[in-house]
Amino acid sequence: MFYIHCPYCCEYREEEEFHAKGQAHIARPADPDQCSDEEWGTYLYFRKNPRGLHHEIWVHAIGCRKFFNVTRDTQTYEIKETYKMGEQPKVTSVSDTLETEEAAQ
Amino acid sequence: MSDVIDIDAIGEGQVAVMDQLPSGEIPAESPLHHLDSTVPTFTSKPAGVRLWEEALKGHLVLRGNAEDPTFQRGVEAALGMALPERLRSVQQGPLSLRWIAPDEWLLVCPGDQAAALEIRLRRHLSGHFAVVNVSGGQTLIHLAGPDAAMVLKKSCPYDLHEHNFPIGKVVTTVLAKTQATLCKIAADQWELVVRRSFADYAWRWLVDASAEYGLIGDTPATAAQRRASTGRHPVSSET
């Protein structure tokens, strides 16, 4: 059991109050009608499964019931940071940076 | 009974508001109405814990943008009190307003005022907001006495130390295997808002957890006082 900082309650709360909701920062294609099947399928079904840093959505289910983001190490379970929806992570890994660069090209 | 109130009176952004209080022919029942016998009204040793339900209160969920000055002013004009800060509650006469989430508050009022307050809020608020009467969906339990904190410490993972949980603080957290909104209203007194469907479980849990400290329902004097002020019979002190 560990304490998780809820960015909306601004407090550390018991893990029991939270649920994990999967990968964060998944952008919905701007125009789904113009998507190829592959792009849409990737958006809908394909998720990362990294060993190391992972950005996830969590929900403070028994509390303020707000969704927020967590940067977590899947290997050590260490939570590096929590931040509100719409914000960007401060803690990023090399693979995050590479992906951002790829997306930009 | 349950009449739809004159919606013209509400004005802009009309919503049909329903007075959910049943009329005299159908008695209102709290979710804990059947648990009279679970709390003793007399103990031979000093009671460490007092437990009673504040039945049939009005519960309104209020949602809106806390940053919006128009919303803030509207709430203040309607209720006579400003929105509470994060994790706090405010009290104004028979009304109390608790913080639930950054854009959500719970207003607890006497049961027969819920519909009137809902209309009042709708009159004073505009734009993007919500007022929902959830009176039937939850109930209010009082836990008091010198050992009340011990009962809660057994039941929830939140830090109840006075440095972390001063009077007036509100926290929604795990209670046993369900959840409750805890509000500390005095040094040794808590108000717990529990969901209707879990009220039976939470109540029985609290009764069981309190047994070792000596449990009693509300003292007859305060029960009588409350009966006089609300016109309703509290569940736990019925004999």
UniProtKB/TrEMBL annotation, chain A:
It is an enzyme of class 1 (oxidoreductase). Its EC number is 1.5.3.1. It comes from the Bacteria. InterPro entries: SoxD, SoxD_sf. Keywords: Oxidoreductase. The keyword GTP-binding does not apply. The keyword tRNA processing does not apply. GO terms for biological process: tetrahydrofolate metabolic process. GO terms for molecular function: sarcosine oxidase activity. This is Sarcosine oxidase subunit delta. It comes from Microbulbifer rhizosphaerae.
From TrEMBL, chain B:
GO terms for biological process: sarcosine catabolic process. InterPro entries: SoxG, SoxG_het, TrmE/GcvT-like. GO terms for molecular function: sarcosine oxidase activity. It is an enzyme of class 1 (oxidoreductase). SUPFAM superfamilies: Folate-binding domain. It comes from the Bacteria. The keyword Oxidoreductase applies. Its EC number is 1.5.3.1. Keywords: Oxidoreductase. This is Sarcosine oxidase subunit gamma.
